[in-house]
Write a structure and sequence with these properties.
The chain is built from twelve helices and four strands; from the N terminus they run αβαβαβααβααααααα. With 269 residues, it is mainly α. The chain has a single domain, classed as Rossmann fold (3-Layer(aba) Sandwich), CATH 3.40.50.620.
Length: 269
């Protein structure tokens, strides 16, 4: 792959199905709970879970905040109905207002967005615990490497079925699975505020982001990635900086070494 474009492995669907059955199927678990956002990540995750576990073992949960568009609510419910999975809508507004009442001094929109993401995950885990199911995260490899997720929010899941697929690979998978074009073509967004998009915040389209990240995965230097892809060196260095800056999101919290074997250091599971 001289152009450093990650391709979708032919075995991807079968491998993810097997993974989901092993982790979220009986006897390990009674199924999975997926947060439905109306975006590509959650749609692909829900479809894969439905096919792997059966519709009766998948619960899709829409957790809209007060600004969530009504058209997107309807489309998301229709998608869940088309999959044949059980689905629920839990209005997040009262929970958000309750936290704001406790912390009225918090005004920063990123802080508030992260809080909303953590509230969503709290509700998903409550439902999963009641049903003896796992929370199926929807993050992909691009987001994990860039740290483009909320720690203990959308990053806090039991399993990540898409975690080893770059965003562009996931888009190819969505075509293979027949995910509706309206979902595939929607601009990726965390939905924290109006007009927010992943690519707008990161500053590059995923087609370039993934080629850079794939180059780093192949242990190419920044200069080699630039020479191969033609992407400006300053953009490559910005992605490298983000990769390093968000390393903490991909690790357990640091623990001081005191005992013979320490969790996260040398305690092998």
């Amino acid at each position: 792959m001289s152009d450093l474009t990650p391709r979708l492995p032919r075995s991807a669907v079968g491998a993810i199905h097997q993974f989901l059955r092993a982790h979220a199927g009986p006897p390990a678990s009674e199924g999975g709970v997926v947060g439905l956002s109306g975006g590509l990540d959650s749609a692909v995750t829900a479809r894969l879970a439905r096919d792997a576990l059966g519709p009766e073992r998948v619960l899709g949960v829409l957790l809209p905040d007060p600004g969530y568009p009504e058209t997107l609510r309807r489309e998301t419910r229709e998608f869940a109905e088309a999959l044949g999975i059980e689905h629920r809508t839990l209005e997040l507004g009262p929970a958000i207002e309750a936290v704001r009442a406790v912390l009225p001094e918090v005004k920063d929109r990123v802080t508030l967005g992260n809080m909303t993401a953590r509230l969503r995950m709290t509700l998903l885990y409550a439902l999963a615990r009641e049903r003896n199911r796992l929370v199926l995260g929807t993050g992909n490899k691009s987001e994990l490497l860039l740290g483009y997720f909320t720690k203990y929010g959308d990053g806090g899941a039991d399993v990540l079925p898409l975690g080893d697929l770059y965003k562009t690979q996931e888009r190819a998978l969505a075509v293979e699975l027949g995910i509706p074009a309206s979902i595939r073509e929607r601009a990726p967004t965390a939905g924290f505020w109006e007009g927010q998009t992943d690519e707008g915040e990161i500053g590059l389209p995923y087609e370039q982001i993934d080629r850079i990240l794939y180059g780093f995965e192949q242990l190419r230097s920044e200069e080699e990635v630039h020479a191969t892809t033609g992407i400006p060196l300053e953009a490559i260095r910005a992605i490298a900086a983000r990769l390093a800056q968000n390393r903490h999101k991909r690790r357990l919290p640091p623990i001081p070494k005191l005992g013979l074997r320490t969790v996260g250091l040398d305690w092998r599971e």
